[in-house]
Amino acid sequence: MSTVNTKDRIEYLDIAKGIGIIIVVWFHARGPFHSYFSLFFMPLFFLISGYLYNPNNTLSNFIKRKFLSLYVPFVFWNLCFLFLRSLNGFSLSHTIRFTLKVLLTLDKDGDYLGAIWFLGALFTESVLYKVLDTFLSRWRYRRTFITVVFCLRAVFAFRIDLPYRLSRTLILGMFFAIGYLIREQYAFFLRFHTRWSVIATSIAFLLIGTLTEHTMGDNEYSSAPLFVIGALAGSYLTICLSKWIESNPHPVMRKCKNLCCYLSRNSIDIVIWQFVCFRIAIAIQLIVYHLPITDVLKYGNRFDTNGGWWILYLITGLFVPILWANLLRSGIWGKYLKKYHIMR
Questions:
Q1: Burial class (CB in 10 A: 0-12, 13-18, 19+), 264
Q2: Using an 8 Å Cβ cutoff, are 98 and 90 in contact?
């Protein structure tokens, strides 16, 4: 395995995560070409997480870090919204079922926190990978074996629509395993990185995005193999773009780099709060359309994204969550939110 420069790796992957979170909100805002982005924006994050997997961490330390950074905020904010919803009508049986689903990371698409499922899914898949890696530590080919296991799980998930959208989690787990495989075999994959490979990948990505249909949440794919190829192609192109932004000295590119890194550092805040903050965009639209603003909670996550309105959702979904999260971190409550790892 070749040595990867740590500073360089972190920087361009930070840029890639920033681009990725822009694409996430762009997709949710139903911006132009969002169907192409749906091919890879979630696989991209799992690939990067797998690439950054540290095999030198002990199992207990790894689980502790993932528990605090992913599981705790996932559970806490889901239960907070359960409490708020219960104010309209408390049901003991519903509360118990919902709480159990949250604790088991099975609640994938709750109201207002529709994107937070990512934290629960990444927690379970990364911990599972680490457990297998630890218990098979004496076997030389364990990582190849684990990758094969994760891929076979994904094949099963493509074919069977599991409850609680677990099929999506298993499929994304495959990309986590592939991410670390790429890191281990970095020198091998680097041989195929040329200008022509970028051009060929771009053409393949555009063709797959045009000719196929896919909805990860509903586990619907017109062609599962093409979806996987498209996801890998889109992720590869994003990484290439990130490296180009990183190395480009133009002042505009420097600002793009700084923006992407800033969004990357705040990506969990955006994941958690983007749909909540979309309500601000909905409220503005209701005022413009002379509709009752009191109906802001009656609509879904979007009211109208046509005619350029998607830009309002994009800006609101990217930057208002950061402002809101910074507000939560201030004051006496912020001290406890950070102390108990509910917020970084």
A1: buried
A2: no
Per-residue pLDDT at 7: 43
Smallest CA-to-CA distance from 169 within 217, 230, 133, 102 is with: 217
Full DSSP string of 110-158: -SS-TTTHHHHHHHHHHHHHHHHHHHTTT-TTHHHHHHHHHHHHHHHHH
Cα end-to-end distance, the chain, whole Å: 33
Q: Where are the alpha helices (DSSP H) in 160-266?
A: 166-184, 186-190, 195-211, 224-247, 251-265
For residue range 250-298, what is the model confidence (pLDDT) as tens digits?
A: 999 999 999 999 999 999 999 999 999 999 999 999 999 999 999 998 8
Q: Is residue 115 exposed (0-12), middle (13-18) or buried (19+ Cβ within 10 Å)? A: buried
What pTM value is reported for the model? Answer: 0.94
The reported pLDDT for the residue numbered 331 is 80
pLDDT at 93: 86
User: What HEC string does 60-89 produce?
Assistant: HHHHHHHHHHHHHHHHHHHHHHHHHHHCCC
pLDDT at 249: 95
HSE, side-chain direction, 13 A CA sphere, residue 302: 18
Residue 142 CB burial class (10 angstroms; 0-12, 13-18, ≥19): middle
Size of the chain in residues: 344
b/e 16-35 (16+ beta carbons within 10 angstroms → b)? bbbbbbbbbbbbbbbbeebe
Q: Kindly give the parts of the chain with pLDDT less than 70.
A: 1-9, 108-111
Distances from the Cα of 35 to the Cαs of 24, 40, 126, 270, in angstroms?
11, 10, 27, 21
d(C-alpha 222, C-alpha 215), whole Å: 9
The answer to whether the CB of 199 falls within 8 A of the CB of 185 is: no
For residue 215, the cross-strand partners are 220
Contact 304/285 with Cβ under 8 angstroms?
yes
